[in-house]
Design brief:
ABC_transporter-like_CS, about 230 residues, ATP binding, four-stranded antiparallel sheet, alpha/beta, six-stranded mixed sheet, ATP-binding, 7 helices, binds adenosine-5'-triphosphate, globular, Rossmann fold, 2 domains
Length: about 230
């Protein structure tokens, strides 16, 4: 049976650097993410938000403590296990990171490259579908240079969603967007979460997003200082 919690992190500590410049970035971080929930992670610059996201996202190794993601322990996991888990995650970053020389569809297909064994025709179909979900059916053949900031970020959302991730990790996805585009992107993620049971953990300084969160966590100096459940 699948657990209600898609993620459980316990006693997570993390350090950067070695010797004299060794610095602790996370202190005894505990957090759980309920399947299908929408959690916002806040905190001042340098408080450790990206470090938490990259640890949960299997983008760096867990040094101390436990992270149980999709019923697998990340502490001590092999690179092959981490790669396999990463396939079940979606990522969106502040800068959309689209390839400028690829069309919207080709960029979205990049989100499927980690899924082996997907035929070109299926990839094309999935990308077209994902672009439709983000309201860009009429822009599938456009290069990023011909899209607005909000449209580019929606392509990045489609790329993150195309592989049907169990957990979506988003680092400041609305920072570069105007109010309307930011609200569209967040509503889209919430809708996807509800429709697919996708769990979202989103780092933001953006107060506009807080109303939409099921839970708000605040990090300060590497420690979770508040945890607020809503609704
Ligand atoms: N690769 C690294 N090498 C050394 N120190 C790092 C590295 N990455 C992060 N740090 C340090 O760890 C602490 C937490 O950084 P992190 O990027 O997680 O914070 P953040 O809350 O995401 O900040 P921001 O909002 O500015 O992105 C900071 O003191 C930072 O300087």
């Amino acid at each position: 049976m699948e657990h209600e919690n898609i993620l459980e992190a316990k006693g997570l500590n993390h350090w950067f650097g070695t010797g004299d410049v060794k610095k602790q970035a996370l202190f005894d971080v505990n957090l759980t993410l309920k399947r299908g929930s929408f959690t916002v992670l806040m905190g001042p610059s340098g408080s450790g938000k990206t470090t938490v996201l990259t640890l949960i996202g299997c983008l760096r190794s867990v040094q101390d403590g436990s992270v149980c993601l999709l019923d697998r322990e990340l502490n001590g996991a092999s690179e092959a296990e981490l790669v396999a888990l990463r396939r079940r995650l979606g990522f969106i970053f502040q800068a959309h990171n689209l390839h400028e020389s690829l069309t919207a569809t080709q960029n979205v297909i990049m989100g499927l490259q980690v899924h082996r064994g997907v035929s070109d025709a299926d990839a094309q179909r999935a990308a077209t579908h994902a672009l439709g979900l983000v309201g860009l059916s009429d822009r599938v053949g456009y290069l990023p240079g011909n899209l607005s900031g909000g449209q580019k970020q929606r392509v990045a959302v489609a790329r993150a969603l195309v592989g049907n991730p169990a957990l979506l990790l988003a680092d400041e996805p609305t920072a570069a967007l105007d109010k309307e585009s930011a609200a569209e992107v967040v509503d889209l993620l919430k809708r996807m979460g509800a429709a697919r049971g996708m769990t979202t953990l989103l780092v933001t300084h953006d107060n506009r997003i807080l109303d939409r969160a099921d839970r708000i966590l605040t990090l300060e100096d590497g420690r979770i200082v508040t945890m607020e459940d809503r609704g």
